[in-house]
Amino acid sequence: MIASGLIAHIAILSIVKDPIAGTSLMLIENYLDIHLHHWIDVFALDVAMVIMIIGVIRRINSRGIFDE
Questions:
Q1: pTM score over 0.70
Q2: C-alpha angle with apex 46: 31 to 53, nearest 5 degrees?
Q3: 52 with 2: CB under 8 angstroms?
Q4: 3-state secondary structure of 33
């Protein structure tokens, strides 16, 4: 659970550091006059938390705690 969230976080940050993606992000930042790097960091953390929550829910459901 935690490992998959961490992997997702690192993957998103690695994609942003790619030269091709980085160049296009810089162009978008300059054209729209916004700071995408801050939003991408927040997005990466959000994705990591969502994946961890999904993992916890699946683990709880597989143990049959909420089965009636």
A1: no
A2: 160
A3: yes
A4: coil
